[in-house]
Amino acid sequence: MSAAHHHLSVHDLSAPPEPPNRYLFGPGPSMVHPRVYQALSKPIVGHLDPYFIQVMHEVQELLKIAFGSGGGSTLVISGTGSAGMEAAVANFVEPAAKLAVFANGYFSDRLTEMARRQGAEIVRLEKAWGQTFADDEASEFIRREKPKVVAYVHAETSTGALQSGRAICAAAHEAGSLVIADCVTSLGGLPVEFDQTGIDVAYSCTQKGLSCPPGLSPMALSERAMAWLRARTAPARSWYLDLKLIHDYSTVSHRYHHTAPISMFYALREALLMISEEGIENRWERHRSCHQVFVREIEGVGLRMHVSSAHRIPTLNTVLVPGGVDEGRVRKRLLEGPGIEIAGGFGPLAGKIFRIGVMGPLATEDNLQFFLAEFNKALRAEGYSI
Amino acid sequence: MSAAHHHLSVHDLSAPPEPPNRYLFGPGPSMVHPRVYQALSKPIVGHLDPYFIQVMHEVQELLKIAFGSGGGSTLVISGTGSAGMEAAVANFVEPAAKLAVFANGYFSDRLTEMARRQGAEIVRLEKAWGQTFADDEASEFIRREKPKVVAYVHAETSTGALQSGRAICAAAHEAGSLVIADCVTSLGGLPVEFDQTGIDVAYSCTQKGLSCPPGLSPMALSERAMAWLRARTAPARSWYLDLKLIHDYSTVSHRYHHTAPISMFYALREALLMISEEGIENRWERHRSCHQVFVREIEGVGLRMHVSSAHRIPTLNTVLVPGGVDEGRVRKRLLEGPGIEIAGGFGPLAGKIFRIGVMGPLATEDNLQFFLAEFNKALRAEGYSI
Description:
Chain A is an alpha/beta fold. The first copy, chain A, has 13 helices and 14 strands.
């Protein structure tokens, strides 16, 4: 047996079976409610089982509440949020098609890179990481470029900036363009308003605002996007992410496409049911109110937010690292002490910001005060005088 | 709020929270052990958390036992087995490259379709579904075609046929070709012998032979495949499945690529630990011995296997539907009565075969006898006289 020289036993492995206790105050993954873990561990059925088809349909219906989408379709990609991004690009940005990207952070760069690999012609309107696009400059860009497809990031995880999509969508539709919106960090935590905004293709993730473990990517498609999809003649370069096939499996014929991650769907359904029980508007308000407290308290100890007040993501706060403080040491201290995870910046924001998510089960007054006390303690220990 | 007309409550939803009790005797997903469900529901940590990195490394080491791979790399794709197939094709079959496919079932057709979408030049050696390729015809095909890449399906889920890879790999290496092997149905249930066979790129799934819920795709890459990957200049068309980036995140720099499905990794580690505790050779033997009993008993009631005895997948039995019996009705009866899932054939085998998996926790004498009794009962109820 070729396996003979590989005999490992449990004892050779160093990671204990019980994960360490973590408070996930980073940009994601976010904290998961015990009810969701319980659903995750229910016995699986087959991916073509009538019960699973029912669960999948329920997930699609419940997603419409979170997206704020009525017509069109919702479906779920069997991959993480990045797979949703690639599905959006691979299905709607055909080779040689002109794509206009609003570029103001890491995820618009990632989308650009994916589109480049699909052979698109790309034009970008660029801003510094943390800034957003005003209505008139967004419209002007689209009118000038007349792209086939427009893409923007609703809530930019790398910077903390929230981009309104109204003017972008209006100008895009006037120009006959389709709009892709990255809603990875917004879905479930703040209004996406898919229909009202006029988005055609939105993708998200199960972690962050939905407070489910990572692994799936929910998508919403407008009637218009569905018509584009049906009209597409050349097949998408990706078979795994082919939305025609996935839509057919998910909602029409239920003909086998791939073996869906059953357990993850159980968890996603439970997370969406919890949102529906809380009421999506109440949930948004809970996050918004925690955000206001967060900013007030942070500014109260002399710290400053990276993004201007009108354009902040309520679930993901970016705080400027005060002079003289090593942000990596603060993060390490929080992780190794109270077990709190937060993130730093990267790219042009490396070393310059903390990224602090207050989402899902952690978005309560008590949890927030616990976090702020530990954060201030860690900052003081690293030389910041409060 | 655009969500206002979507107020669903728990009571509007029709699928009960508790899944029905199913015995998964189909080709997959397979039955999952309670220990694996328990691991699945452990609290998550971040995808860059030192604990998670450790778990990921352990998974990679444990996978080497199952694959029978020493050098090279093992890694895990954040998608199902089909994502692993697409990763293999997207990274190793460059546009315009010649790919030789051994085509004898649905999954070699799927791989062909993926390669077509990647712009490959494809040549196929075709056989009826259920047949396999003899050493000399395999070698002759490769010598004649001199392809850049060769692909075959080790255990063809749609037919029950097991294809030896020795002659294919030997001829391919002589011709300077790289070999991709689909091991979706073989890994964990029977020897893959990655190194001994000479496979360069293998992909699999977490369900079936590993008895973990579906959602991830383990891969093994030979040293040769790693060298190809490093030498590739044009980036893969897929960013999500870019193995250079995934390898870097998984094993080298741990630089962020995507948010890994943490919970699924916990489950996969537990499933692999259980395999390591049982001993992989013991596990293979357990499956092989159940297969022998299965065939004996099935033939004992006058039924016949679809695949010739030398080329059967021990974990997935394909049984010819006896004349006069409607296979769909038998399956429905089994699902709605004792809750047993088995599958039928599709494509050219639609209506002609039953596909019956005896894998993981169900591969014991007791479970097998339970299955056979119910299967015979259902056949009798549908008019077959035993």
